[in-house]
Amino acid sequence: PPAGAPARHLDLSLLPPARGTPPGSTPRVGSTLAGRVVAVTGGGLRVALPGRHTGTVALTDLHDRWVPNAVAGIAKGAYVRVKVLPAADQAAAPTGPDGRKALQLSARPSHGGAIAGVAQASAAGGKQGKRKRSNAAAAKPADDEDADAAPELLSASARVYGASVTGYVKAVSSSGLFLSVDRRTDARVRISCLSDGYVEDPTATFPLGTKVTGTVVSTKNGRLELSMRTVIPKASSKQRLALK
C-alpha cells in the first residue's frame, strides 16, 4: 500500500471450504478448521479461527488419552487443527469480547485434530500399534487395556458415590481444586480432601492442566465433589439407595 495508508489484512485458509458453507459464514458442525492459539487458560485453549471467528477447546478435548498435564508444551501462537463439535456442546462455549458466541472445538487426534509441536496422546494407532496392543492384551485384563483412555463425556455410572473420576486442574482457590472432567462437567476437590496429609501450597502442587483422580463423595445439585484421601466418608442413606 502507499506510504501512510492503513494496512489491510486478508484471511486465508489452505483447507477446502465445507460443502454448502459460504466463505465468512459460521463454520458448520463437523467442519475441520485451522486456527491459532491466542490463550491457554483454565477453560482450555482460546483459538482464533478464519473469518474472525473464535473457539475454545476444553482441557479434556486436547488428547484421546489421559496425560500428566493436558497443556504441557502448548503455547500462545501455536497453530492447531480443530473440529467443530455438535450443537449439544455449543451451549458450554463462552461469548467473545465482540458479543459473538465462541465455537466449541475438539483438538483430539481421533477427531482429526492436531497441535503444532505437541505429541498428542492418541487412542488410535496404525496397524503396528494395533498388533502391539493385541499382543499385550493377553498379558493383562481386558478392563485395563484402555485404562488410560479419556472418555469425551462422563458416563452416568461415574456420577455416583464411590466412583473414581479423573480430570484436569482448571483452577485453584482457597476452597480447593476445580477440575474439568469433560467439556460439559466440572468437579471440585475441597482443600481438606486433597490429601491424607497437609498440602502447604496447592497452587504449586497442582499446576494448571495437571491430571487428578479422586473419588466421588457428593453429587448434590448435579455438582461433583471429589476426595483424594485414601479413606472417604461413609455413604448416606440416599447415596446407598442410588448405588442399588
UniProtKB/TrEMBL annotation:
Domain S1 motif span(s) in chain numbering: 30-108, 162-229
SMART domains from the UniProt entry: S1
InterPro entries xrefs: NA-bd_OB-fold (IPR012340), Rrp5 (IPR045209), S1_domain (IPR003029)
Entry GO CC: small-subunit processome
Pfam families membership: S1 (PF00575)
Entry's Gene Ontology molecular function annotations: RNA binding
Region of interest called Disordered, as start-end residue ranges on this chain: 117-147
Domain of life: Eukaryota
Annotated signal sequence range: none
GO biological process, one term: rRNA processing
The protein's name in its UniProt record: S1 motif domain-containing protein
